[in-house]
Write a structure and sequence with these properties.
- By secondary structure, this protein is of the alpha/beta class.
- It folds into 3 domains: 181 residues, no CATH class; 122 residues, no CATH class; 216 residues, Fe-S hydro-lyase, tartrate dehydratase beta-type, catalytic domain (fumarase).
- 53% of the residues are buried.
């Protein structure tokens, strides 16, 4: 099959850079349900813009291109060994070209292979079938949403919902709890794949396979179709909203599958997927390896802009603000610049507060400037910021920093980077999930004098206490909006710790007009804690049995 490697490369690029049409329509439907003047509504506007930018630039929608997972059905007699070699070659090529981020890390040493190859990566499931063609499907599921996967063993006692038994109503409770526990850390609004039954391993496999179903399909099993509809209606009553900002839209899709189980075991496995729902498939000619058919509708030409006037305003250009360093503009106009999605004015329930403040800051930032900020404020950053993820935070606990971090901003980000004769260039750079740094963040803030942390999904009480004591803020950016934020990163000033690998290295980036919202301030306030508390109360209201 002389063309199979090229076909796999095309599949990888399309999956990474162009959301399929059914996903785009789901995002557009979500936008139509959300007040566009709220944080969640304007976050969805940013998401819509990012989708278009990724397609236009043929660059990753999200910088975390995840664990490439292939499901391949082949006719009897096709050489799967050679197919695997071609898939590996296509993976290396896509990584070298910046379509995939190097994500394969040795679990014991932490060493990044640099080419997305290694023990167990990429994941390839081969299955034979009696059809004449080869069916190849690919999903790129990032680590942030992968970490919010969850598996339940019934019967179980679930927070807010009580006992979940071995029946359809117990399954219902598990799925609702899965949405609740994810909050905004999985880049909501999201999609769920649910697997009922099997064992520990096959249950998760079944759940992930549900994500290959089309968003608008109907489950052929009547009970499961009813369950899917129920979850879609009621999960969105939890008020978690996009990015966990609070709002009307928390879930964009739910698909449920079932298989037999052992009498002693009853597992409900949930695969959570972010809004950047990157999956695609191709039908391949066995003789040549060429693509005969794309299995999901192309996203090209399918707009996620549910309101034409928003599209026109967004296209007018990035936010232009006259606010000078540290000076607040009260009641700033959002309508004039809806691209300021990361900082839409809203209360914890997603409703417009009517009194947002926009503050422009340049690094290094003083404690006085930070103490003046409150949850809900728009912060527009310029100057130098530094990326830092798991490996760097662990290192900094026991070592000095390679640069002066007093008054600095740390960005929880593992960018996609390419190097040419002019140096390094940022190809994609959205935020990573911040809660992983909770064991380290507070101590590092105080040790080095860091004033602001940017990430997604919020952090916990230890960090909140450190922000209060030290004088710091947590700024929430829009998860998955890798192209939107890459435009703000104008220059790579340098890099340290390349031995950690590109995603985990400490990149020193010159930024302009990087907009984010204060969701944890130096006065002990946390939007994330407020939304979680509110959604817990709403979850408890769904405790009573529904399916007998």
């Amino acid at each position: 099959m002389r063309d199979f490697e090229e076909s796999m490369y095309r599949l990888i690029v399309e999956t990474s850079t162009n959301l399929p049409g059914d996903v785009r329509r789901a995002v557009a439907k979500g936008r139509a349900l959300e007040d566009r003047a709220t944080r969640s509504g304007l976050a969805l506007t940013t998401i819509a813009q990012n989708i278009g930018m990724a397609e236009q630039e043929v660059s990753p929608i999200c910088q975390d291109t995840g664990m490439p997972t292939f499901i391949v059905h082949t006719p009897v007699g096709v050489n799967q060994i050679e197919m695997k070699k071609d898939i590996h070659s296509a993976i290396v090529r896509a990584t070298k070209g910046g379509k995939l981020r190097p994500n394969s890390v040795d679990s014991l040493t932490g060493e990044n292979s640099g080419d997305n190859l290694g023990a167990g990566t990429p994941v390839i499931h081969f299955e034979q079938w009696e059809e004449d063609n080869i069916d190849v499907r690919l999903i790129l599921k990032g680590g942030g949403c992968e970490n919010k996967n969850i598996q339940y063993s019934l019967p179980a006692e679930l927070e807010g919902l009580g006992k979940a038994g071995r029946d359809l109503d117990g399954i219902r409770k598990c799925i609702l709890h899965a949405v609740y526990q994810a909050q905004g850390q999985g880049c909501s609004a999201g999609f769920l794949g649910v697997g009922i039954g099997g064992d520990r391993t096959t249950g998760y496999e079944l759940a992930k396979k549900q994500l290959f179903r089309k968003v608008d399909d109907v489950n052929p099993a009547a009970d499961l179709a009813k369950l899917e509809d129920y979850i879609m209606e009621n999960a969105n009553k939890l008020g978690i909203g996009t990015m966990g900002f609070g709002g009307e839209v928390t879930l964009l899709g739910c698909k449920v599958g079932v298989m037999n189980r052992l009498p002693a075991s009853f597992f409900v496995s949930v695969a959570y997927n972010c809004w950047a729902f990157r999956r695609q498939g191709v039908l391949v000619e066995p003789a040549t390896g060429s693509i005969k058919e794309w299995l999901y509708e192309s996203g090209t030409g399918v707009s996620v802009e549910s309101e034409p006037e928003v599209l026109e305003t967004v296209a007018a250009g990035r936010l232009a603000t006259s606010v000078t360093d540290g000076v607040v503009s009260e009641d700033a106009s959002i309508a004039a610049a809806p691209e300021i999605a990361p900082a839409a004015p809203a209360a914890a329930n997603g409703q417009s507060s009517g009194g947002t403040r926009e503050i422009r800051l340049t690094t290094p930032i003083s404690e006085e400037q930070i103490r003046s900020l409150r949850v809900g404020d728009v912060v527009i950053l310029s100057g130098e910021m530094h990326t830092g993820r798991d490996a760097l935070h662990k290192y900094l606990m026991d070592h000095d920093a390679p640069v002066d971090l007093n008054g600095a901003v740390i960005y929880h980000c593992g960018p996609v980077m390419l190097k040419d004769e002019d140096g390094w260039h940022v190809k994609a750079a959205g935020p990573t999930t911040s809660i992983r740094e909770e064991p380290y963040q507070g101590e590092i803030l105080k040790k080095f004098g860091i004033r602001a942390v940017i990430g997604k999904g919020g952090m916990g009480p230890k960090t909140l206490q450190a922000l209060r004591e030290h004088g710091g803020v947590y700024l929430n950016a829009i998860g998955g909006a890798a192209q939107y934020y890459a435009e703000c990163l104008k220059k790579v000033n340098g890099v340290d710790f390349m031995e950690f690998g590109i995603p985990e290295a400490m990149w020193h980036l010159q930024v302009e007009d990087f907009a984010a919202i204060v969701t944890m301030d130096s006065h002990g306030n946390s939007l994330h804690a407020d939304v979680e508390k509110d959604s817990a109360a709403k979850l408890a209201m769904l405790k009573e049995p529904v399916f007998k």
